[in-house]
Amino acid sequence: xxxxxxxxxxxxxxxxxxxxxxxxxxxxxxxxxxxxxxxxxxxxxxxxxxxxxxxxxxxxxxxxxxxxxxxxxxxxxxxxxxxxxxxxxxxxxxxxxxxxxxxxxxxxxxxxxxxxxxxxxxxxxxxxxxxxxxxxxxxxxxxxxxxxxxxxxxxxxxxxxxxxxxxxxxxxxxxxxxxxxxxxxxxxxxxxxxxxxxxxxxxxxxxxxxxxxxxxxxxxxxxxxxxxxxxxxxxxxxxxxxxxxxxxxxxxxxxxxxxxxxxxxxxxxxxxxxxxxxxxxxxxxxxxxxxxxxxxxxxxxxxxxxx
Length: 307
Ligand SMILES: Nc1ncnc2c1ncn2[C@@H]1O[C@H](COP(=O)(O)OP(=O)(O)OP(=O)(O)O)[C@@H](O)[C@H]1O
Ligand SMILES: [Mg+2]
Prior knowledge:
UDP-N-acetylmuramoyl-L-alanine:D-glutamate ligase; single chain; four-stranded mixed β-sheet; alpha/beta
């Protein structure tokens, strides 16, 4: 079981238009409505892989209700903390050439009580195998929110995974997370080292293990990903496929990696399933996530090398 926490989830509205023009009305051929947010994506991909998952975080208003319903319809259980402010909606306007204008709605401020309620609700359900804390905090949230939740989870024997940047990622190292999944830029900001090659990724990851992190997966976009855990350092090449939009690829990769880890698979399989999910997501248009059949077709094509 994988539980995910997304404090600032969203409802993504994608308008497909023939052409993006300014100062005139354009008619959309199609409007897609989908749940959005990093941890939300992790849960959605885990569910597509047939894994039981619960999405947690704040949700409010009609958009929050729709978010819940859409997730439940995709076999993602929801356990949101209700808040007064409406869940944000993001607008994506995409033309026929794939060009996009992406507008991210602001997150509504939450109160101290809301935060306290979320912390409690994370521990309401039976303990999961993994708790994934994803994305940045809302403005005004206590900066030690992730540390508090993670420490309590770890004390309960739950493995904690973090996909975030900046201070939230630093926190993951401080609490000794089970898994972190930075991309190369996030790893650079975390460690202050340049990460241009797979060897750089290994060198930057090793000190993080010494500080208590169990595994670091650094995603390198089209160059695949590097996993470092214990004495093991692996690089998986992303298969060559036709790429449409890599939005959400990193979230899908984390989902694949966590599903394999919870199933007790070796690190090689953890990395392989992560890369297959990431690349399968990069094949789909816009914010759409991977399909299971694409993941299964890519899996044998992911080449893993020991470093
Ligand atoms: N152009 C691409 N070609 C093939 N695979 C890709 C491509 N872009 C991403 N991927 C796959 O997705 C994985 C994660 O991608 P990436 O490094 O872009 O994550 P990210 O920056 O965290 O993305 P995001 O946070 O936007 O979801 C890569 O390791 C790779 O397997
Ligand atoms: Mg990412």
